[in-house]
Amino acid sequence: MYSVLSCIVGQHNVWLVGLASLVCLAGVGVTLSLLHRAATTGGLQRYGWNFLTGVAAGAAIWCTHFIAMLAYNPGVPVTFMPVLTVVSLLVAVTGAGLGFAFATSGLTSAAPMIGGSAVGLAVAAMHYTGMLAYRIDGIVAWDETYLLTSIALSIIFAGAATRSALRADTMTGHLSAAALFVVAIVSLHFTGMTALQITPLNGAVEVADDPSTAMALAVAGMALVIIGAGISSYLIDDRARYDSYQRLQHMALHDPLTGLPNRTSFTNYLEFELDRAEGAKRKVAVLEIDLDRFKEVNDLRGHQAGDEVLKVIADRMSNLLREGEMVARVGGDEFTAVKTFIDPVTLVEFLERLQKVIFEPIEISDFEVSIGASIGVAIYPDDARDRENLLSNADLAMYRAKASATEDICFYESSMDERVRARRVLASDLRDAVKKNELSLHYQVQTSISTGEVIGYEALLRWHHPVRGAVPPVEFIPIAEETGLILELGEWVLKTACAAAAKWSQPLKIAINLSPVQFIHSDLPKLVEDALKESGLDAKRLELELTESTIVENKERTLAILQKIKELGVSIALDDFGTGYSSLETLRSFPFDKIKLDRCFMQDIEVSPQSKAIIRAVLALGKSLSIPILAEGIETNCQFMILKDEGCDAAQGYYIGRPGPSISIETEQEDLLTA
Fold first, then answer.
1. Contact 176/169 with Cβ under 8 angstroms?
2. What DSSP element (H or E) covers 196?
3. For a surface tag, which of 198, 224, 561, 590 has the fewest beta carbons within 10 Å of its beta carbon?
4. CB 574 within 8 A of CB 539
């Protein structure tokens, strides 16, 4: 150890040693940073970073060695062989690159230590290759003990440094790794130089004009250029990664179509505003906004036009925002807004601004449309004390606005909760109704008006609740459709009715209503086919009824499904005729087997010439299309006789027969046979 210190102090230019140390420290810092980046990437990027690591490490090690060699004063003239000097540089770069590549390969848990040791061996190979390029006017001898010790120190410390660098996750760990790497380089060089023993030849003299300092500065300058290139590449990559992160973060927090904040961003913002409002005198209003006529634009003009509408409205809303206001798109044609306020007047003013830009006509291509919206408002802390309930209450208010014919904006009222809670309880009970055998089918007779003959029955679903008693279909069917339970109920009705009809003594038709939801969410033709096969019912005896609104929802899909059902031999009836938006277009689109005239036309047929004229026109239409007409809601003999005089084909209603269970049907059929 004393010999090594004596070599450093007595035989080296201290200033150049300091310069070599500066280059070494800078090079090691850059090398370990690049090594860490190589370890955290994969694929071709890892190869690239390993290459840069090897170049930075090799250049730093070689330059440190070369400057330290120039700092060494052997007392005799010195020259360097160019070829071996360059070869020593290549050895340093190649060896360091390969060693670090193995260290980051993950092939084995010992890879960092093995790869680092290989780098240490490369450092030693570079040093002694450089020493071969060292030409001195004297006799050179080596102390093998110091020589082998220098190589061992380089391998051990470089291995430990690499292992520490790849495992470090704190600043202390990184500094420790850098210190070990510096020790590996320094201990190799100065222990190796201690091993060097020079005996000057007779007559050899030291050169007076020594260019060592100038050469050392030039080498140091080149080393710093290479190290700077490594730093630059690291910083450029960091910037690219930061920019990429910013883009990904923007994508994660914003809607890609409109550029507005998305649901995640909205949730974070609302939580922040609620926290700020806690304990303060300010309030936070949440607005649920649902566009009213957006679906019409999509259906009539296509999705591209719909997207343009969304972008225009989003742009308008974002431009009107002021401090304490925020608008987000949370899905489809749904938007949500937040308004922080103290004076309620400012909330009303915000609503007016929103309403104005949403209801203002939008010009797209060759058409103009006024979209409109239903807006629900809930206020913290008046209507709710937490985010979930606040959003839920705003949603309830929005649905009330949507259902209102006169109000576009509705504020939450506590009575809404009671109605919603009651519906949720009913929905929960309805889920168990099938399992608990609370559902049943009643059947209402359909007769020929001209002959009085029974032509079939319509199956009607009934629910007897264990506590509430009979629950009207008008109350539980909408709930079943909203919750998706209608799929399970519809399948049960279809299979139960087909099985019951198959056992009737007479081959009468059974009519079953279909929900629009069944056309959207289920393979209806397969379900019908399975019900017929399981029950053994002749397909000609099954008649499925659907309303015009079902077809309007998705015309092409619905008509395609109806065509498949019709191919099974099943009849298709158009229910509630005359109440839809495009009855004649519906009849043109599909060959229905029957038209059911809605009961609303029967209510004042006895006193209203207009109602009688409408019925006469519908009957004439049916005859011209060869489609039989069945009138619903017949409750008096007078109504029945008017329909008979007008030539209506069939009728159904309380006057003819009230709905009843299966056993009543068998009794009716027996009575008819004996009459």
1. no
2. strand 196-200
3. 590
4. no
B/e letters for 351-380, b = 16+ CB within 10 Å, e = fewer, are: bebbbeebeeebebeeeebebebbbbbbbb
Residue 116: helix, strand or coil by DSSP?
helix
Look-up of token digits 């038209």? 595
Q: Is the pLDDT of residue 212 over 70?
A: no
Rg (C-alpha) for the chain, rounded Å, is 44
Angle at 180 between CA 174 and CA 182, to 5 degrees: 105
CA distance 203 to 209: 18
3-state helix/strand/coil string of 206-266: CCCCCCHHHHHHHHHHHHHHHHHHHHHHHHHHHHHHHHHHHHHHHHHHECCCCCCECHHHH
If you search the block for the tokens 């109605």, which residue do you land on? 419
Contact 196, 140 (CB under 8 A): yes
Residues 535/498, Cβ–Cβ less than 8 Å: yes
Side chain identity, residue 303: H
Read off the DSSP letter of residue 201.
P
Tokens of 536: 């053994």
Q: At what angle do helices 171-195 and 2-11 cross, to 10 degrees?
A: 80
- CB count within 10 Å of CB 142 equals 14
For residue 124, how many other CB atoms are within 10 A of its CB?
25
pLDDT tens, 590-642? 889 999 988 888 888 888 888 888 889 889 988 988 999 999 999 999 999 99
Q: Count of CB atoms within 10 A of residue 31's CB?
A: 30
Q: Is 127 helix (H, G, I), strand (E, B) or coil?
A: helix
* Residues in a beta bridge with 261: 254
Q: How far is it, in rounded angstroms, from Cα 121 to Cα 151?
A: 7
Q: Phi, psi at residue 367, to the nearest 5°?
A: -140, 160
**38-59 pLDDT tens trace:** 777 766 667 777 777 777 777 7
260 touches 318 (CB < 8 A): yes
Structure tokens at 643: 């329909």
Question: Has this prediction a pTM greater than 0.70?
Answer: no
